[in-house]
Amino acid sequence: xxxxxxxxxxxxxxxxxxxxxxxxxxxxxxxxxxxxxxxxxxxxxxxxxxxxxxxxxxxxxxxxxxxxxxxxxxxxxxxxxxxxxxxxxxxxxxxxxxxxxxxxxxxxxxxxxxxxxxxxxxxxxxxxxxxxxxxxxxxxxxxxxxxxxxxxxxxxxxxxxxxxxxxxxxxxxxxxxxxxxxxxxxxxxxxxxxxxxxxxxxxxxxxxxxxxxxxxxxxxxxxxxxxxxxxxxxxxxxxxxxxxxxxxxxxxxxxxxxxxxxxxxxxxxxxxxxxxxxxxxxxxxxxxxxxxxxxxxxxxxxxxxxxxxxxxxxxxxxxxxxxxxxxxxxxxxxxxxxxxxxxxxxxxxxxxxxxxxxxxxxxxxxxxxxxxxxxxxx
Amino acid sequence: xxxxxxxxxxxxxxxxxxxxxxxxxxxxxxxxxxxxxxxxxxxxxxxxxxxxxxxxxxxxxxxxxxxxxxxxxxxxxxxxxxxxxxxxxxxxxxxxxxxxxxxxxxxxxxxxxxxxxxxxxxxxxxxxxxxxxxxxxxxxxxxxxxxxxxxxxxxxxxxxxxxxxxxxxxxxxxxx
Lengths: 378, 176
What we know:
The complex is a heterodimer. Chain A has helices at about 1-10, 40-55, 85-90, 150-160, 200-205, 210-285, 290-300, 330-340; strands at about 20, 25-30, 60-65, 75-80, 95-100, 115-120, 125-130, 135-140, 165-170, 175-180, 185-190, 195-200, 305-315, 320-325, 345-350, 360-365. In chain A, about 40% of the residues lie in helices and about 25% in strands. Chain A has a four-stranded mixed sheet with strand order 8-7-6-9, covered by helices on one side. In chain A, strands 13-14-16-15 form a four-stranded antiparallel sheet, with helices on one face. Chain A has a three-stranded antiparallel sheet with strand order 2-4-3. By secondary structure, chain A is of the alpha+beta class. The model of chain A has no long low-confidence stretch (mean pLDDT about 90). Chain B is α+β, with helices and mostly antiparallel strands. Chain B has helices at about 1-10, 15-60, 60-75, 85-95, 130-140, and strands spanning about 105, 110, 115-125, 145-155, 165-175. In chain B, strands 1, 2, 3, 4 and 5 form a five-stranded antiparallel sheet that branches. The longest helix of chain B is centred in the N-terminal third of the chain and has 48 residues, at about 15-60. Chain B is elongated, with a radius of gyration of 34 Å. The termini of chain B are far apart. Chains A and B meet through helix 1, helix 6, helix 7 and strand 13 of A and helix 1, helix 2, helix 3, strand 2 and strand 3 of B.
């Protein structure tokens, strides 16, 4: 499969699978249609015309038609199904388009008032245009395999005589499907002439069973969804690849940053330590912790009923006291007294679980900086 | 691209579905793995950015901090500073002078350039208030070479008239 993929990619896109059926097997008629008819209306008119024109019901025919929006004519062609073997019909299943050979020429530009003569193994087909975009008539002349060049020329002249005022194009090669530049048209090369048929138009030109064609279109839509999903996934993989490259770049950049941070860290830690120690030394010189002064201050404002059990300093300017009392109002008196003092910035009181008719509480008093002075005899 | 498209569309339906499934799995596995690694890398980048910014701030203030550090110790007499041994000895001596029991933990030292700060936790169990005050006053006279960093006092459970004191003391040592 790998080799097959590589060789396929090297070979370029293959031409579309188009089956061109012998013109000899088809009868062709141009039928008038209203200019403003819609495609479904045209399709039903074609069915009606076939019922009238053909000795066989449409269900027994392979048929299609060529019509241009806004045109006043549709070119209808049909072939009796039994003229094709089951093997032939089965071979069409995977084809993108199945049309009579002459229909491949219909996409040429500037064919008005022109007669195109198209050769094939079975004979010559002449397509006659008048002033409309859809041909007015198609004629076929069989050429026996052992026919001389003079016979062929005579037959060609016979075909051209039918429209003597038309410009004549005599093609010398059979049509070949080519890969086109876009997905919206199908290209045929017939000798030096190009014919481009819009894909939307080929749906009505295809002679296969219309239900089978509908199934084919559904499977094509499903394949297209799969292809677009596949493309999206490939794009995601490409993006992931690019993102991986970016991540590798970011990782490399990050490594240099980490190396720089590691290199600077000892120096920064030294600076941080110096800063911390400087702060502590400055605090030693200028901001002494004054625990006894704080205790003395609280003690001076303590109601007689309150007994201190435990004290501890909190930072440089606060002290936490655990105390108890049997006179409950003394607690709020103590708290209020402290809060009223200018030296106290904040006083917080928490009642602790207790018993034996004692209230145990914790009081944290925060002093304003410089509110207390060192006392030589606290 | 047209060739690849033709190749893809030319496969059987099960081959197309398998190809898509294979690529879905590939993208999902690679994508989830990539997201995890990218998240880790992003977190690492952010952390390093923060650290580098912090380092840059400290480095920008290096001169000021070093100057402040020199200024902080320039008024101190190196002969009166205490290393950790002298600190413990001094505290023990002060406690003995004030009839206080004395225990201490292992001193901790932090050094920076020309000076060091020693910290020691001491306990003065079952002390009376007046003795503790005298100890405190004596300690205060050694400021700023010795200072109290943290202080806690509690009534002794056995004898509430006595107090258990716990102090974290620090001293400065100038190394020249």
